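#struct-pred
JK: can someone run the complex with adenosine-5'-triphosphate? inputs below
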Amino acid sequence: MEGTGNQEAAMKAISVEGLIKNYSSVRAVDRIDFDVGAGEIFGMLGPNGAGKTTTIECIEGLRNPDGGTIRVLGLDPQREGYELRERIGVQLQATALYERIRVREALKLFASFYRARSPWADDWEKLIEPLGLADKMSSYYHTLSGGQKQRLHIALALVHDPEILFLDELTTGLDPQARRAMWQLIKEIRDRGKTVFLTTHYMEEAEQLCDRVAILDHGRILALDSPADLIASLGGENRILFTLEDPYDVDCFQEIPHVSRVERIDSQVALYSSQSSKVLLELIKRADVSGWSLHDLHVQRATLEDVFLTLTGRALRE
Ligand SMILES: Nc1ncnc2c1ncn2[C@@H]1O[C@H](COP(=O)(O)OP(=O)(O)OP(=O)(O)O)[C@@H](O)[C@H]1O
Ligand SMILES: [Mg+2]
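RT: done, structure tokens with the ligand placed:
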């Protein structure tokens, strides 16, 4: 295949250079570049319409880009899609399955789409058990709950033991407990040496699950790094929050050493600082002297939400 840079290519599961995708006059993806390393969980985080689905579908070979180069496992998804599909797993959307198919039949049907025999062909329970569907083998698809269907879609994307798993909005619609269980499962898949590419608009999901995150907005990548490094790029500031009904002058908080910024919304006050424990001590001292009662005092770590806010000036809300 590629004559040069084989070693580097071997470390990369996906490489994208200058990707452009237009829908008539709308530029959905605007010249983005990134690589996904083999064995990492890579996330694309961004609000509705940011271009996440368009990007993932170009990489999967389901959409044709208008510009740029994509390589997935060294293959061109446009020209070598047939070969590529044997090696990647794509999570299906909920509507795509026939209602009166049983879980076991669906697994067999999907396995039959691939040339290689499924490593689970003799023991489907092994694949389905970690997804919490072991007792659903004989159930009809239409009798599964929304979360169970979603887990079955993951199982179907895994039947041929793909090297890369693509998940578009993995946990949308799952309850918090099911979401956490899904994160655990995805980490286990990564720990088996697989690469995972996912999109999400849940900050917490990106932060808890992804090794690296690209923040996408209006078809462009605004930042790309590990969640910890993205947050650290803000200067590692925490937020000290409290409510104070007593009258006070905002300057008295600004004066506290190591406070970089004070925000006030009605009676709620937020102090920003990279040395929150020192600020906390001083704040309590001053409250004692002034006779203020601070309610609901707590420290909030900076999150990816703050990163997004800093980069775009807007909040990314669910
Ligand atoms: N088939 C299409 N035809 C025309 N425009 C489209 C099409 N698909 C997407 N778009 C537009 O491209 C932009 C990016 O859409 P995309 O679906 O990639 O966003 P997304 O980040 O996946 O959003 P969401 O979080 O809502 O899933 C949007 O402005 C959308 O309206
Ligand atoms: Mg989408």
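RT: quick notes.
The pocket of adenosine-5'-triphosphate (ligand 1) is lined by residues 23, 26, 28, 46, 48-54, 201 (CB under 6 Å).
Residues 164 and 195 are 5 Å apart (CA to CA).
JK: thanks, will look after standup
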